[in-house]
Specification:
Blueprint (H helix, E strand, L loop, with lengths): L4 H4 L3 E7 L3 H16 L3 E7 L4 H6 L11 E2 L13 H4 L32 H12 L3 H15 L1
Helix pairs in contact: 5-6
Length: 150
């Protein structure tokens, strides 16, 4: 059972990331230590950016995935609306759309095993935020989106 710390000690979590973002590099050891405190064994593999697609999808990755989580540490930056394309169900950048397999089915035009993140409240909040001109109100909408997503 995963709730048992001894059982968690038998599990290894492999985190993968790549160079280029200091915040991501700073986050990885924190995540690794937190997971270790929970009883898991944790590996961190930082790869060269030029090898990312080979690592994720190529022969070197075997089945296409020899890690448990890739750490992106994406953030909206100055405008929280930059997350819209990742949350809206009709976007090809939707979090679910970006699942395996890497290439979409030729006939269907999308990945057959892909799920699409589609939350009616998130869609409503994003629509309101996109029309809002008051930065503080807009911020409140995106904070609620963040709470739902997390």
């Amino acid at each position: 059972m995963i709730g048992d710390k001894a059982a968690r000690g038998a599990m290894t979590i492999d985190l993968m990331s790549w160079l280029g973002l200091k915040a991501r590099q700073d986050f990885l050891p924190i995540a690794q230590e937190y997971l270790r405190q929970q009883g898991f064994r944790v590996n961190v593999d930082i790869i060269d950016n030029a090898l990312i697609n080979d690592y994720r999808y190529g022969e070197a990755a075997g089945s296409g995935r020899n890690w448990d989580f890739h750490v992106l540490l994406y953030g909206p930056g100055a405008d929280p609306g930059t997350i819209d394309t990742f949350m809206l169900p009709n976007s090809t950048s939707n979090w679910g759309y970006r699942s395996w397999p890497f290439y979409p089915d030729k006939d269907a035009g999308k990945k057959l095993d892909a799920w699409i993140y589609d939350n009616p409240r998130v869609n409503e909040l994003i629509a309101m935020a996109q029309k809002e001109t008051d930065p503080e109100k807009r911020k409140q909408y995106y904070q609620e989106v963040d709470c739902i997503w997390n």
